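G., the chain you wanted modeled:
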Amino acid sequence: MRRWSIQILQLNEHGEEVSADLFSKATYVLHESFRERAKQAMTTPPFRITEEGWGEFDMQIILTAKEKGGDHTVVHDLNFQSNQYEAKHVISFKNPKPNLLALLRETGPVPGDENGRKKGDESIKKKKRPEKGINMDKLADNLQRLQEDDLLQVVQMIHDHKSNDTFTKNDVEAGEFHVDLYTLPDNLVQMLWQFSEERVVA
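Predicted structure as tokens:
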């Protein structure tokens, strides 16, 4: 019988381990042989779980982020090849709210910061405030609901009209295109708003 434990930590911008305060809960989904203990939720960092058993297996760990950051599932390979080991996973957030961005910045810069935006920089916030009548949350939702052909047009529009401050990331392998809407110039935000409103069926 092997006794094992797992805990969740974050890495800051220097690669140092820090408390995983970004999350409010970690739910471990173990092998079905654990029966009534096959699903366990921890609500205090470092969200440590301690169990014992013979077998190795892949488990799901569902991390619930604070500030309505949603649930994020990672798969962890539990094995006994070493007495102690670590596994690193990247968690991505789509259009995080300001409070969640503030939490993310506690461990380092977030996408868009390298363009000159810093924590607490009110002048940048005012400069990037969307035009009146545009709901940025709805715009983000509209863009995610577009059909593939329309999305390709959106990507082209962003490439054609973005500014030096615009943050974009094209993940070819995953087939994903990321953009920080708050770093887009006002005229491009207006274009995307009109385009998405015309294309998306309520």
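Residues 148-161 form the longest helix (14 residues).

Shout if anything looks off.
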